[in-house]
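BUG-103 | component: ligand-complex export | severity: low

The export step for zinc ion jobs runs without errors, but we want the raw record kept on the ticket for reference. Input record follows.
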Amino acid sequence: MSDAICHQCGKPLPATARRHARFCSPAHRAAHHRSSIAHTLPRVQFLTGAGRDNPATMAPYVAIVPETAFPGMYRLKRTDGSLSDMVNLPRARDALTEARRRP
Ligand SMILES: [Zn+2]
């Protein structure tokens, strides 16, 4: 065996591994598979529990995006890609300015 290391963690495979084994454990095989298909999964995130509607734990605003269904209305985009509730432009600018003022 030339590359007898786990493709997930890089540690040597156990002596009992199959000849063509690529991972040291089923958990690392699954983790490697999850990371390999991560780009095909939807990026939608649902905020649940403590984070939901709690500004202190939500990602900061980074941009103003126009609401396509309602011309003249806007939403604020967060660093995690989620969007705020719909607001008018002055309120969106205020919120973004406030978000940038905070450390
Ligand atoms: Zn491993």
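Assignee comment: Attached the raw record above. The first strand starts at residue 61 and ends at 66.
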